């Protein structure tokens, strides 16, 4: 499930980035922000998809992806709600929809990480501390 969630996040982020860069729909966000966010999403999407192709994705990197997704989702909700940009009605809907999708990716990735940890025995036991 973890690898599926990472790949899904990667494909969706890459596609959103390409859409933003190539079409730049009128959502009320400055063009410079759209280009920056689109470029980030393309690079992020490729990286997360690559992480999902690994035999065993690095748990620390997966945790960073999950935390990043939670921050992105929170920022999306705040952006739509606090009117940081003069978003159009469609812009508000798109920002909220992608924020909720990113939150969903974070939840799927967290569940997948927990299941993988349970299956391998990692993550279920507290770390022993060395006194030396």
UniProtKB/TrEMBL annotation:
<feature type="transmembrane region" description="Helical">
    <location>
        <begin position="61"/>
        <end position="84"/>
    </location>
</feature>
<keyword id="KW-0812">Transmembrane</keyword>
<feature type="transmembrane region" description="Helical">
    <location>
        <begin position="90"/>
        <end position="113"/>
    </location>
</feature>
<protein>
    <recommendedName>
        <fullName>Integral membrane protein</fullName>
    </recommendedName>
</protein>
<keyword id="KW-1133">Transmembrane helix</keyword>
<keyword id="KW-0472">Membrane</keyword>
<feature type="transmembrane region" description="Helical">
    <location>
        <begin position="35"/>
        <end position="52"/>
    </location>
</feature>
């Amino acid at each position: 499930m973890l690898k599926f969630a990472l790949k899904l996040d990667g494909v969706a982020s890459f596609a959103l980035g390409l859409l933003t860069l190539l079409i730049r729909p009128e959502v009320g966000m400055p063009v410079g922000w759209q280009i920056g966010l689109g470029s980030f999403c393309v690079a992020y999407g490729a990286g997360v998809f690559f992480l999902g192709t690994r035999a065993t994705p690095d748990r620390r990197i997966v945790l960073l992806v999950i935390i990043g997704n939670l921050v992105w989702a929170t920022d999306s909700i705040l952006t739509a709600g606090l009117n940081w940009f003069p978003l159009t009605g469609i812009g508000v809907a798109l920002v909220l929809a992608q924020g909720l999708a990113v939150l969903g990716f974070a939840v799927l990735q967290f569940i997948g990480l927990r299941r993988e940890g349970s299956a391998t025995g990692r993550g279920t036991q507290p770390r022993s501390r060395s006194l030396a």
